[in-house]
Amino acid sequence: SHANSYCGFIWAGACGQVFEAKDTVLAAVSVWRQAPPNITPLRLYVMEVDSTGTPDFNRILLYGPTLQIVEGDGVHPVHFRFVLDPPLALPRPGRYEFAIQTAPPYCDFGASLLADDRNPYPGGAAWEHGRGDPFFGCYLTHARAKDPGDDLVLQLEFCDTPTPVRRGSWGSLKI
User: Which of 58, 67, 133, 173 is the most core-located residue (most Cβ within 10 A)?
Assistant: First the structure.
């Protein structure tokens, strides 16, 4: 219901979103793809940003998972929820970017993610990654800011409570 725009990509390009992480354990990332259904699998990346806030594709923290969703009613957006198992431990609170790209063997295909141009997420902004060479594999390239105020329609899930671990010794573990 928030979408009024989109971020499209093709030929190993990607769309991303810079986000503010107050917690450091990322459990899931959700985006929505435009209808009609598209069988192209999508891959998630998470990377650090440089001192200017630009996504740095040379500092990738997470490569994958990949999702392929073939069902859909052809009218409503398709929900892509990338569950991180185990969750991703970010180096520190701060700004990061997640990017979505088509996955092999469909690097030369494209997709469109839903976006909103009313700046609903002041903690970051949408970015577009340039086209790679799909014949040599899907890989991320440089990023440039999308139009001011554009944000992907997204949902981020963080683990805010640590899981307690029972202390034990090596001897009790061997038994």
Answer: 67
Cα dist. 8→61, 128, 139, 146, 152 in Å? 23, 9, 17, 11, 11
CB 87 within 8 A of CB 46: no
- The model's pTM is 0.84
Reading the block at residue 38, the tokens are 């598209």
Tokens of 150: 């554009």
Q: How far from the centroid of its chain's Cα atoms is residue 46's Cα?
A: 6
Quickly tell me which residue has 């990017």 as its tokens: 99
Q: How far is the CA of 93 from the CAs of 15, 21, 140, 155, in angstroms?
A: 22, 5, 24, 18
The answer, yes or no, to whether residue 148 has pLDDT greater than 90, is: no
Distance of CA 126 to the CA centre of its chain: 11
| Minimum mean pLDDT range among 51-60, 99-108, 144-153 | 99-108
pLDDT for 132: 66
Sign of the Cα torsion 72, 73, 78, 82 reads negative
